[in-house]
Amino acid sequence: MSLETVLGNFQQKANNNQRVKSIIINWKPRFFIEAQDTHLCYQLDIQDGQIATIKPADPDDNDDSILLVCGKQQVLESIFSGQLNPLSAYSSGQLEVYGEEADKVKLDAVSLILWGF
Amino acid sequence: MIRDKKAFLSNLTLGVGMALAVSCFAVLSQMFNHQSGIYTPYIILLAGSIAYIVAKSVGELSLMYPGAFGIWTYIRNAWGNFIGLGVVLGYVIMLLLVAGIEGKLLGQIFSVLFNISHPALIVTALFLFVMGINWYGLNFSKRAQIGMVLLLVFISLLLALLVWIKVPEESANSAIPAETALDSLLEMLIIAFFLFVGFEWTTNSANTSRKAAGDIPKVLTASIAVLVVYYFLFSVSMQAYLNHDTAHHSMTPHVSMATYSLGESGSFLIFVLSSLAVLSSFNVGLIGATRLIYAVAREGYLPESFSSNINRHGVPVWPLLFLGTSGLVIAVFCAIAEIDIAILSEVAALIICLIYAILLHTALRLRTLHGEKVSKQQKLLPAPLINIVTGLMVTVIVAIIADKGWSFEIQFSLTVLFLVMVCAGLMIVNRYNKLFQKEKSQ
Virtual CA dihedral for B152, B249, B100, B122, nearest 10 degrees? Predict the structure, then answer.
């Protein structure tokens, strides 16, 4: 499965979950996911508690208000398909996350609701 | 070359602000009271040089794991989960001790300046305020944080200069002990590390872009440089002041120095500035520690409740309540009881020294795993230097604990605390390993 497909499945799963919706209802981060080894990069547009669109886009490295998640493509695919605990990947250094602390915790809360770990 | 100047300044003031708290002035006072108090400015330079080496090592680690979970990531990757947990617990205990010291000192200052007879109420209000801010996931704005720390540094140095100019030369009848005793010098060196506590928090709490993350090593070393210059100049002025005025038992010498140079308005000015700096660093410290506890719990090392309840502002509720309430209880207890601040700061300094020694060797250990990855980006410290400094720090820590002469009650309490930490750590790791094995077999 490609990263785009994995993200598409993630979008569907998240949008169908009411608890996720209640958590991200007023959340409007500029959220990017970047595969460092394959240089694939996507922006997830979150609006009204839903992941509205996923489109290829490059993050602005000068912008400290964005939420950026980077890692190897395989790690990102494992995380967004629920096979790898994102916090374990983050703590072990497999995953790089840049952004506000509250945004990081919210993102982690979404994975906790969806995958249960 | 600094990649992001704005973020650099913001992170620099975060690191400096975390280290610059009211208790630092109490520690300076404590150092001047030592048998070899006269050497305080030189001890600051020595401790600063060692802290600079630690900062270089932490900077190296931050480049190995950019955008990761700071110290928790570095330690566990190098030494495994058990030591990683030990360091996290050590940090939490140290933060609570610092909360106790800060609470007591702020209570004292409030009582003196505003003639309030119940300092515990002030301390409670302060903690509830910080917890309230944290509950809503709020930070002081970057501009406000930069402004507060710069104001504190410049105005307190200006006051120190005024004191230095004002103190008459002929009154130089030193009341500062001037013996050259090795044990006293070593103890002062350990206490001096307390002056730098928190500079490394930028690796845990800095909200940075990817571009700014590359500047973290420079932020860390610059923080140490600023702190060393600041403390050195302040201690030189304080020495002159103490030679003139023998009231060196004050745990808030910056307030009495400000009163001496500018009268009552000076003391209010320095009080307002240091209170704002304390609020800012408490807030950042609590945010960082809350996330640290949350992360450790999320991975199954601490009770699940610490990670399961997140409010709509993205704040983990139970870690915040646990840390905030524990800090409040300790601070109020310290504010009411006749607790000797010197002992609390010595214990906190010993803990941070041990953590710094571990961090120093962590860089060395991970260097062998990562090979050339980091050396291309940064000039590395030579391994023999790191080994010598780590060995020196550990030897001094052991020698001081052995020679401390603490009362039986304190020694007993510390031993029990240490054993509880070890047992709790072992139980947590054991439980995690069982869960992990179970998941694997399924």
Answer: -70
The domain that holds A18 is classified in CATH as: 3.30.1050.10
Contact: B312, A99; criterion CB under 8 Å: no
Position B331 scores a pLDDT of: 83
Q: Identify whether A65 is part of a domain.
A: yes
DSSP three-state, residue B37:
helix
Domain count, chain A: 1
Would the CB atoms of B315 and A70 count as touching at under 8 Å? no
| Res. B433: pLDDT tops 70 | no
Chain A: closest CA distance from residue B299 (Å): 6
Q: Is the separation of the CB atoms in B207 and B213 below 8 Å?
A: no
**Chain A interface, mutation test: which of B79, B211, B298, B440, most A Cβ atoms within 10 Å?**
B298
Minimal Cα–Cα distance from B69 to chain A, Å? 5
Distance CA A85, CA B334 (A): 41
Structural domain containing residue A52: 3-108
Q: What's the pLDDT tens digit per position in B156-175?
A: 888 889 888 888 765 555 66
Assess if residue A115 is contained within a domain. Answer: no
Residue among B63, B310, B422, B442 nearest A110 (CA): B310
Task: State the ipTM, two decimals.
Answer: 0.88
Per the CB < 8 Å rule, is B299 touching A62?
A: no
Place of tokens 């996330």: B291
For the full predicted model, state whether its pTM sits above 0.90: no
Kindly list the distances between the CA atom of residue B405 and the CA atoms of A54, A82, B339, B383, B409, in Å, as whole numbers in the listed order. Answer: 65, 55, 17, 35, 11
* A12 within some domain: yes
CB of A45 within 8 Å of a chain B CB? The answer is: no
Of residues B209, B299, B315, nearest to A88 (C-beta): B299
Residues 62-91 of A with CB under 8 A from B: 62-64, 66, 68, 70, 85, 87-88, 90-91
Cα-Cα end-to-end distance for chain B: 52
